[in-house]
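3.2 Worked example (two chains)
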Amino acid sequence: MKKKILIIDDDINVLKILGLVLERDGYEIATASGGVQGLTEAYAEAPDLILLDVLMPDLDGLEFAQRLRSDPTLEQIPIIMVTAKSMTDDKLAGFQAGASDYIIKPFSSDDLLGRVNTVLDRFDKSREMLYTRDGEMISRLSASQESMSNLEPWVRSIWETASAAQMSESDARKLAERSLPSLRPTLTKRTEAPPASSGKIKG
């Protein structure tokens, strides 16, 4: 399945050139001639990556990036800022606004494609790591379901919160003890493992 890239720039010629380069490399392209239209297209197209100009009259690239990062439905989309603003402070402002990379005009087609491929690869790997982590968390919670059913409701609530935050067992117990010190004996009794059978064969 082709990756979709949204290009946002108020220069029509830039839109055409960037679109042509990326299409030849196998990407699907969507375009917008300004920041406001770009936000609309981002919602409509759900792109895998956004190439974003910084200097635009209606909504500049910095504000666009900040709005994107504040929206839960769009915040994970990587952004590469494409601009002639080359000062260190400009780059810093771009990254602080939420850019994943920053390309200074003029640039070569090879440089553009290299940056695009790198950012997309990095994003895919990060997403895979997130899915793996979430899957492992679900497995741990499922494995502990039987023991969780024996806990009092208030203890189970704290334990579920601690598990979701990936706390260790000792940290979770400390959290509960700090929250409800008068019930500490109950928590200790409920969460400690039963003693091993004296008839168990060792060795």
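3.2.1 Second chain
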Amino acid sequence: MHEWIARHVWRSRAESAPDKWRRLSFLLEVDGDVAGSQDLKASDFPQLRIVESASWLGERFRGTGLGKAMRAMVLHFAFQALDATAAETESEEHNDAALGVTRSLGYQPCGDRYAQRVDRIDHMLWSRLTRERWALLRNGYGLDEVGISGAERCLPMLGLGETR
């Protein structure tokens, strides 16, 4: 595993609390290599039930459908295991690949902002997918049946109690 990924995951775990998840990370492994990661984060999730997703996909895995599959699986986890009411994401205005994944999964535009970077200012586009829209569209994602096991063990760390 890349050292920076391990640091990112452990730092995120250390900085998370039940009322604010810095990052709940899911890693994608292909033939023993870390191909990417899909993260969920949230503030006041037990009350708001809204998650935000973020992802990274290694360059050689881009354009293969893995980015969409990763996002679809983490959405399934958010809506099924965590009972989220909505998922949000943001992408740089010029990141056509990320925006394509977002649109293909049924997200709808919901706002924008400008983000200051070291060497530039980026126009960021926000999108939202509601639980109801996900339920209508998820069978068209082109994935086999997705199952979840063991999620109940992490619910207390996410402020959700012992059982759902």
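3.3 Remarks
The longest strand covers residues 20-30.
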